[in-house]
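1st attempt posting a full record on here, be nice pls
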Amino acid sequence: MAKLIALNKMTDTMKEGVLVKWSKKKGDTVKPGDILAEVETDKATMDLENFESGTLLELLVPEGTTVPIGGAIAVLGNKGEDFSALLASTKSNSNSSDNKNESKPAEEKKAATTLVQPSTQSHQDTSSHDGRLKASPLAKKMASDKGIDINAVIGSGEGGRIIKKDIENYTPAINTGNASFALGKEGYTEVTVSQMRKTIAARLAESKFSAPHFYLTMEIEMDNVLTARERINANGDVKISVNDIIVKAVAMALRKHPQVNSSWLGDKIRTYQHIHVGVAVAVDEGLLVPVVRFADQKPLSAISAEVKEFGKKAKEKKLQPQDWAGNTFTVSNLGMFGIEEFTAIINPPDACILAVGSVKDTVAIVEGKIIAKKVMKVTLSCDHRVVDGVVGSKFLQTFKGYMEDPIKMLV
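the predicted structure (as tokens):
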């Protein structure tokens, strides 16, 4: 008997998905475990697995279509089976649901539809067939008062008629002696918001306006870290970055300040005994936060290899749900882009996030002498429901101690 294949929930926060590419075609025989399609979820592009045996009688959704959770995407049944009644029943149910939800008058719906249509009006001749100028009396008077040649104005009214707003918005050509030129036209482009961007927007808006943020900024001397990194990379097979050292130092500091390694759960605060550090990775659609698990227990070489692999998978949209789940603290580093200092929005369910700026050259007075120093600013964003100022400050002091004397991380 023919049945509909619906889009299932592929991540815990997924509400809809974009069917990027069909992996099977109409008429193919499929079995449980086969991959039917690639679907862009709110986190990554993932494989849609089949759970039934049969023949794909029809593909109901073209590639590139956004489908809600539970939405029908294909028909599965026996080869040659008539499934017209199934489709008719599905369409009838859909129409019934639409009728129940209909609340706007036809004229209002038509107007709304017109508003979202892209403008196709081109520059039209503002004169009628008998040679008369098509312009409202008010537009003519305004043009005369402003000294505007109304024949040079493009009308936006019906049939190219010049109206009040056309005079108000008119910009004449600029004459610069022997040459004249017209200013550019207003315009814009629009792109459809990806599932990932929708989820990022929703989660960060929820975090920003539900968690009372406060910020602590500290400057850290980086000379010893940079020297240590140079020596490690000169003698080791694995090349580590400053960010790898930051992740390690953060994890070590969290071990000493467990209150920072916590979450607000409404009627209770959860303090984690494990330390999973999320590392923000930039992709075209925004930021993904893969998680380095048990970061306090891992050597720098393991952290480095893991972060590099996460970055590669993120750009290829190959991260899986287990890669980004379970963070207890997050590090966001924009130093590589020359950003000296910034504040970050807390990444739920964390209580804190560390924003890392660039390393820059400065000077300091030490024992009466002016010496060159390399410094880096970090800003800790804290959820005040969980972390108080003193707790956050002590965490930063411990972090600073590890960064300015990296050998302490070996103890």
